[in-house]
Design a protein that fits this description.
182 residues, alpha+beta, Alpha-Beta Plaits, 2 domains, 4 helices
Length: 182
């Protein structure tokens, strides 16, 4: 009997060792997959939190339509050159200036601000210096982002020293359309 006992113990130990060594790699795979699953669950939770934050922001923006329209006016999604010219024309009238014309304009991607395009154009006015000065302050404080690049006042004409032709180069911005929309 002792031989059968030894054989049984030997077989039992062999079976245990084979089972342990056979299942050990599987157990290691199980542990690695469990850790990977935890990482994926964490990523999923972060994505859910991000979506919830966007949802909250969208709902909050819906409570502020005036501010949103102000921002959309400041940086429109399209070139909006005609609406800007109308804006300038109306503003010049309010400040006692005559908006005579607009000249050359160019459209390019902004090197300074990623995702925006720059529209640079020449504008021509007639009126008094005081009216032009108040117009410039109003333009700089308006909702539309406009940078005055250059002002030129030709002095060849004399309108009793009070009225002048003004030329102004201005830069406005709009959002670039994403490549998938073009």
């Amino acid at each position: 009997m002792p031989k059968i006992k030894k054989t049984t113990i030997f077989l039992f130990l062999t079976l245990v060792l084979v089972t342990v060594f056979a299942t050990f790699p599987l157990f290691g795979d199980f542990v690695r997959e469990r850790e990977r699953l935890k990482a994926k669950e964490k990523e999923l939770q972060m994505e859910k939190d991000r979506v919830d934050a966007f949802r909250f922001a969208r709902e909050d923006l819906q409570n502020h339509p005036l501010e949103v329209s102000f921002i959309n006016n400041a940086l429109p999604e399209e070139h909006e050159i005609p609406s800007f010219l109308h804006h300038v024309s109306q503003m010049s009238i309010r400040h006692g200036l005559l908006f005579r014309d607009f000249g050359n304009f160019s459209i390019s991607d902004s090197e300074e601000f990623a995702g925006l395009e720059e529209i640079e154009m020449d504008l021509y006015f007639f009126g008094s210096y005081e009216d032009f000065k108040s117009f410039i302050f109003a333009l700089e404080n308006s909702g539309r982002i406009a940078e005055i690049q250059e002002i030129y006042i030709p002095l060849e004409e004399d309108y009793q020293g009070r009225y002048f032709n003004f030329e102004m180069n201005v830069k406005i911005y709009s959002y670039l359309k994403p490549d998938y929309e073009q």
